Amino acid sequence: MTTGSQFVLLAFAFLCIGNLILTHSYERPPKRGTLFIPPVGPDKMRVSWVTEGDVTPTVKYGTSSGNYQSSATGTTSSYKYLWYKSGKIHDVVIGPLNPDTTYYYVCGDDSTKEFSFKTTPSQLPIKFAIIGDLGQTGWTNSTLEHILASNYDMLLLPGDLSYADFIQPGWDSFGRLVEPLASSRPWMVTQGNHEIERIPAVHGEPFTAYNARWHMPFEESGSETNLYYSFDDRVYKNLKNNCGPIYITIGDGGNREGLADEYDEPQIPISVFREASFGHGQLQVMNATHALWTWHRNQDDVAVAADSVWLTNLSTDPACKA
Q1: Residues 129, 155: contact at Cβ < 8 Å?
Q2: Rounded Cα gap, residues 235 and 310, in angstroms
Q3: Measured distance CA(216)–CA(308) in Å, rounded
Q4: CB 302, CB 322: distance < 8 Å
């Protein structure tokens, strides 16, 4: 049977996610689909992929191309959404892995298609590529091309991934779209409102596709749900505090809703600069006290930073100690 190539990496863990199968008039996708890798603890990755039929959920991997010295076996699952039925979603955790190292791997029973990824460094500096509201448009392609041309260690996507919005084959096409990046660097994602996909009285379970396809390391963080795998800090009474955390909001990946080119008037003092452009951000954590945030527009060369700001950790500042 023919195989497709869709891959997505998530920091410290692998996930080979693949194509889903829809009944009725939907054309069945290739045998294997999206691959992505999320982190699982400090030295493991999760590999997930989907096949049309039953295969052994095994991943073989090693540090030399074609020489797979290690292997791991995982689990297989699937999900239904209305008349749509997914393929077999295989989930395998591999490791322990060395930091800042390139690994080569093959999934399941097919050893002809080799992929590779690079683990994150164990020490600073580290660079994150950050996008939000990605979707599947020509603008999305431009954003991904810019990120692919940059030198980053991990990609963060904080919500609104595929914009499938109930149309489940959209998750399959999204996997194919992001595979070139997701198969070579770790990805960490969170859910947004477009991942809910709940239909009252028809399909009451929210986040069905997201939870089945994008398995984050929530168990390792002590959480009971895939929707929550980290800590939670809220703004205290909307209080402005120079010693407080800095929040970065980003949502210009390229989704079908288009540019947000309408603004509230008059411009409030905290809104220093306003522009409607698609692009992505990069966060370079240099050391324990300093990080550099840059924003890169799609209409510019990837090396051009349209905006930048240095962030300083004030935890050791006497003025910020309780």
Answers
A1: yes
A2: 21
A3: 30
A4: no
Residue type present at position 151: N
Exposed / middle / buried, residue 204 (Cβ in 10 Å: 0-12, 13-18, 19+): exposed
pLDDT at 192: 95
Rounded mean pLDDT, 140-166: 96
Between 13 and 250, name the one with better pLDDT: 250
Token digits of residue 199: 């239909």
Structure tokens at 15: 């996930």
**Closest by Cα among 97, 65, 102, 48 to 212:** 48
Per-residue pLDDT at 230: 67
HEC letters along 230-247: CCCCCCCCCCCCCCCCCC
End-to-end Cα spacing for the chain: 64
Residue whose entry in the numeric block shows the structure tokens 């989930």: 91
Report pTM.
Answer: 0.86
Per-residue pLDDT of 52-89, as tens digits, reads: 889 999 999 999 999 999 999 999 999 999 999 998 89
Q: What is the Cα–Cα distance from 34 to 18, expressed in whole angstroms?
A: 4
Contacts of 72 (CB under 8 A, 6+ apart): 58, 59, 61, 92, 93, 94, 95
